[in-house]
Amino acid sequence: MIDQITVFLENDKGRLAALCRTLGDAGISMHALTFADTAQYGVARVIADSPSKAYEVLNEKGFRASLTKVFAVEVPDRAGSLATLMEALDRADINVEYAYCFASKDGMATEVLRIDNHDEAEQVIGDAGFRVVKPEELYA
Protein backbone atom coordinates (compact mmCIF):
# COMPACT_ATOMS: atom_id res chain seq x y z
CA MET A 1 0.00 0.00 0.00
CA ILE A 2 1.03 3.59 -0.53
CA ASP A 3 0.33 6.88 1.22
CA GLN A 4 -2.01 9.36 -0.40
CA ILE A 5 -2.18 12.93 0.85
CA THR A 6 -5.78 14.05 1.34
CA VAL A 7 -6.34 17.80 1.69
CA PHE A 8 -9.57 19.58 2.57
CA LEU A 9 -9.71 22.97 0.87
CA GLU A 10 -12.08 25.87 1.26
CA ASN A 11 -14.04 26.26 -1.95
CA ASP A 12 -12.35 29.59 -2.71
CA LYS A 13 -10.58 30.82 -5.82
CA GLY A 14 -6.86 30.08 -5.74
CA ARG A 15 -6.82 27.41 -3.03
CA LEU A 16 -5.93 24.56 -5.40
CA ALA A 17 -3.21 26.70 -6.98
CA ALA A 18 -1.85 27.46 -3.50
CA LEU A 19 -1.73 23.74 -2.69
CA CYS A 20 0.17 22.99 -5.90
CA ARG A 21 2.58 25.90 -5.37
CA THR A 22 3.25 24.88 -1.76
CA LEU A 23 4.25 21.38 -2.85
CA GLY A 24 6.27 22.68 -5.80
CA ASP A 25 8.18 25.18 -3.66
CA ALA A 26 9.03 22.35 -1.25
CA GLY A 27 10.50 20.31 -4.13
CA ILE A 28 7.73 17.73 -3.98
CA SER A 29 6.62 16.22 -7.28
CA MET A 30 2.99 15.19 -7.71
CA HIS A 31 2.41 11.98 -9.68
CA ALA A 32 -1.38 12.29 -9.52
CA LEU A 33 -4.00 14.79 -8.38
CA THR A 34 -7.74 14.40 -8.23
CA PHE A 35 -10.07 17.08 -6.95
CA ALA A 36 -13.76 16.95 -6.06
CA ASP A 37 -15.82 19.74 -4.63
CA THR A 38 -19.06 20.47 -2.85
CA ALA A 39 -20.67 23.85 -2.31
CA GLN A 40 -18.53 24.52 0.76
CA TYR A 41 -15.24 22.68 0.39
CA GLY A 42 -13.10 20.60 -1.90
CA VAL A 43 -11.13 17.41 -1.38
CA ALA A 44 -7.78 17.06 -3.13
CA ARG A 45 -6.13 13.65 -3.26
CA VAL A 46 -2.46 13.66 -4.16
CA ILE A 47 0.08 10.95 -4.90
CA ALA A 48 3.51 12.51 -4.42
CA ASP A 49 7.12 11.39 -4.43
CA SER A 50 7.49 12.22 -0.72
CA PRO A 51 4.13 11.83 1.03
CA SER A 52 5.40 12.33 4.59
CA LYS A 53 7.21 15.53 3.64
CA ALA A 54 4.15 16.74 1.71
CA TYR A 55 1.95 16.08 4.74
CA GLU A 56 4.30 18.02 7.04
CA VAL A 57 4.76 20.97 4.66
CA LEU A 58 1.05 21.32 3.96
CA ASN A 59 0.10 21.24 7.64
CA GLU A 60 2.85 23.76 8.47
CA LYS A 61 1.37 26.09 5.83
CA GLY A 62 -2.12 25.85 7.32
CA PHE A 63 -3.70 23.23 5.06
CA ARG A 64 -5.81 20.46 6.58
CA ALA A 65 -3.91 17.44 5.28
CA SER A 66 -3.95 13.78 6.26
CA LEU A 67 -2.28 10.60 5.04
CA THR A 68 -4.50 7.79 3.76
CA LYS A 69 -3.43 4.25 2.88
CA VAL A 70 -4.46 3.29 -0.66
CA PHE A 71 -3.56 0.61 -3.18
CA ALA A 72 -1.67 1.43 -6.36
CA VAL A 73 -2.32 -1.30 -8.91
CA GLU A 74 -0.60 -1.68 -12.27
CA VAL A 75 -3.25 -2.13 -14.97
CA PRO A 76 -2.64 -2.68 -18.69
CA ASP A 77 -3.63 0.46 -20.59
CA ARG A 78 -6.18 -1.21 -22.86
CA ALA A 79 -9.93 -1.57 -23.07
CA GLY A 80 -11.47 -3.83 -20.43
CA SER A 81 -8.48 -4.15 -18.09
CA LEU A 82 -9.95 -1.97 -15.37
CA ALA A 83 -13.29 -3.77 -15.68
CA THR A 84 -11.51 -7.09 -15.09
CA LEU A 85 -9.91 -5.74 -11.91
CA MET A 86 -13.18 -4.26 -10.62
CA GLU A 87 -15.09 -7.48 -11.37
CA ALA A 88 -12.55 -9.53 -9.41
CA LEU A 89 -12.94 -7.23 -6.40
CA ASP A 90 -16.73 -7.33 -6.75
CA ARG A 91 -16.79 -11.15 -6.84
CA ALA A 92 -14.80 -11.15 -3.59
CA ASP A 93 -17.33 -8.70 -2.07
CA ILE A 94 -14.64 -6.04 -1.64
CA ASN A 95 -15.92 -2.47 -1.73
CA VAL A 96 -14.03 0.22 -3.64
CA GLU A 97 -14.66 3.53 -1.87
CA TYR A 98 -13.06 5.58 -4.65
CA ALA A 99 -10.63 5.16 -7.53
CA TYR A 100 -8.60 7.23 -9.96
CA CYS A 101 -5.71 6.49 -12.25
CA PHE A 102 -2.68 8.09 -13.77
CA ALA A 103 -0.51 7.24 -16.72
CA SER A 104 2.48 5.07 -16.10
CA LYS A 105 4.84 3.63 -18.68
CA ASP A 106 5.30 0.70 -21.01
CA GLY A 107 1.59 0.41 -21.83
CA MET A 108 0.54 0.36 -18.20
CA ALA A 109 -1.52 2.71 -16.04
CA THR A 110 -1.54 2.96 -12.26
CA GLU A 111 -4.97 2.70 -10.66
CA VAL A 112 -5.28 4.16 -7.16
CA LEU A 113 -7.91 2.41 -5.06
CA ARG A 114 -9.28 3.11 -1.60
CA ILE A 115 -10.46 -0.34 -0.56
CA ASP A 116 -11.71 -1.95 2.61
CA ASN A 117 -10.36 -5.33 3.76
CA HIS A 118 -6.73 -4.68 2.78
CA ASP A 119 -5.28 -8.17 3.26
CA GLU A 120 -7.96 -9.93 1.25
CA ALA A 121 -7.91 -7.23 -1.42
CA GLU A 122 -4.19 -7.67 -2.04
CA GLN A 123 -4.68 -11.42 -2.50
CA VAL A 124 -7.63 -10.93 -4.87
CA ILE A 125 -5.71 -8.35 -6.92
CA GLY A 126 -2.77 -10.74 -7.32
CA ASP A 127 -4.98 -13.73 -8.09
CA ALA A 128 -6.68 -11.69 -10.85
CA GLY A 129 -3.29 -11.20 -12.53
CA PHE A 130 -2.61 -7.62 -11.44
CA ARG A 131 0.37 -6.27 -9.53
CA VAL A 132 0.25 -4.02 -6.49
CA VAL A 133 2.87 -1.29 -6.88
CA LYS A 134 5.28 -1.03 -3.97
CA PRO A 135 5.86 2.36 -2.31
CA GLU A 136 9.56 2.42 -3.21
CA GLU A 137 8.69 1.98 -6.90
CA LEU A 138 6.25 4.86 -6.88
CA TYR A 139 8.15 7.31 -4.70
CA ALA A 140 11.45 6.92 -6.58
Give a description of the structure.
It is a single chain. By secondary structure, this protein is of the alpha+beta class. It folds into two domains: about 1-65, VC0802-like (2-Layer Sandwich); about 70-135, 2-Layer Sandwich (Alpha-Beta Plaits), CATH 3.30.70.260. About 35% of the residues lie in helices and about 40% in strands. It has helices at about 15-25, 50-60, 80-90, 120-125, 135-140; strands at about 1-10, 30-35, 40-50, 65-75, 95-105, 110-115, 130. Strands 1, 2, 3, 4, 5, 6 and 7 form a seven-stranded antiparallel β-sheet that branches. Strand 2 (about 30-35) and strand 3 (about 40-50) form a beta hairpin.
Question: Which properties best describe this structure?
Answer:
single chain; 140 residues; alpha+beta; VC0802-like; Alpha-Beta Plaits; 2 domains; seven-stranded antiparallel sheet; 7 strands; 34% helix
Short description:
This protein is an alpha+beta fold. The protein has helices at 15-25, 51-60, 81-91, 118-127, 135-139; strands spanning 2-10, 30-37, 41-48, 64-76, 96-103, 108-115, 131-132. The protein folds into two domains: 2-67, VC0802-like; 70-134, 2-Layer Sandwich (Alpha-Beta Plaits), CATH 3.30.70.
